[in-house]
Amino acid sequence: MPVLKLLLITGVGSFLAMERFDILGEDARKHLNTMVFFVFTPALVYSNLAETLTFKSMLMLWFMPINALLTLIIGTALGWLLIKITKIPHKLHGLVLGCCSTGNLGLLPLVIVPAVCKESGNLFGAADVCYRNAMAYASLSIAIGTIYTWTYTYNLIRIYSCNSSIVNKVDDSTENPLSAPKSDPEDISKCSTGPLVVAGDKNQNKDNAHTLDIEYTMSDGKEKVAETEKFMKCLRTFAAKLNLKKVLTPSTVGTIIGMIIGITPPFRKVLVGDGAPLRVVQDSTTMVGDAAISVMTLLVGANLLKGLKGSGIRLRSIVGIIVIRNIASPMAGVGIIRGAAHFGLIHHNPLYQFALLLQFALPPAVAISTFTQLFGAGEGECSVIMLATYAFATVSLTLWSTFFMWLVQ
User: Fold this and answer.
1) Exposure on the CB side of residue 231, measured as CA atoms within 13 A
2) What's the average model confidence in pLDDT over 284-303?
3) Which of 80, 165, 200, 404 is the most buried (most CB within 10 A)?
4) 2-171+247-407, what's its fold?
5) Cα–Cα distances in angstroms (integers) from residue 35 to residues 12, 29, 154, 280, in the given order
């Protein structure tokens, strides 16, 4: 039933995005995506973590970030094998690796895990307690997925798309040196990582080259830079390379604030609970966050409509991604979670184990399509992959969810 509900709302989103109606057209999707990114999702993550998370429960959830990281590692390894076997073009390597490694850790757990608790005869205890815990697991999954997607998948697609554009320009200039095109500043800006290094700035390049040295001299070659100054310089360079603006998204900030309020008793007493003096702030934030699920699901359906137009990607590549995301990865997840439970790494909470297992069975993250649009590499191929994987996921998620619920009893 949760998967069927998701499918129905997704279908409505696709229907509203048709050119005949154009309710969820390009501009509307852009504005809704902005609202989801800056308003709905942070409010949802904050409100649920502040209400359900405590210091004790946070210690019990330590394995979830590691579990999500394992999905990335396994998916990347399997995706690399797929590239070698099917000989996928170089320009699509980042797209294929991203689709194989990065699941939709935001929307789908948020829809499926809490919805399971509302079903009659659920296996996870009282519906209200189950629902609160499920929302906490799903909210934490959103934050983890956002961090991994913007640090790993974003740079993966950026690197391969930029390398492909460089290779294409070199090939063009080799064939016809006299008519070789000049470098496009827009392409260079797309390939950059923000405040890392400005092209052509030799002084800044020299600074970055010497940043991590234990000791170095100033311009006269005699005076040594103070230890504190060197440490701060290293810290600034690390922050620039990490691109904290991409990591500290509104969802991540909402997660941090929600965790602080949840695990700090004075803050929690002021904001959370029927007797809290500022409970109206918490209730208002919850109302705003509740809109995230329906809007995000509608946007997924609207974006999947692009896949009906087709692309030049080979069928065997699409089938390989489907097999990796919907068959091989969940099977690996079963072994990992059962092994972790056997050795006492995770507590024997059926709902928690179900949420961990579900992370291995999710279709690719929707944000990947945003990255392909940003770098202009594989947009059509990404739309077809998304349509195929999500269509198959309507069946595979139902089967795997049923199996996972039986497994964790």
Assistant:
1) 3
2) 85
3) 404
4) Na+/H+ antiporter like fold (1.20.1530)
5) 19, 10, 21, 22
